[in-house]
Amino acid sequence: MLNKVGTHDNLHHRGVVIGRQTCVMCGINDECVNHLLFSCGDTNYIWNLCDNWFRVVLVHHNCAQSHFLQFEHPCLKKVRIRVWK
Question: Any idea where the domains of the chain sit in the sequence?
Answer without folding.
Answer: 8-84
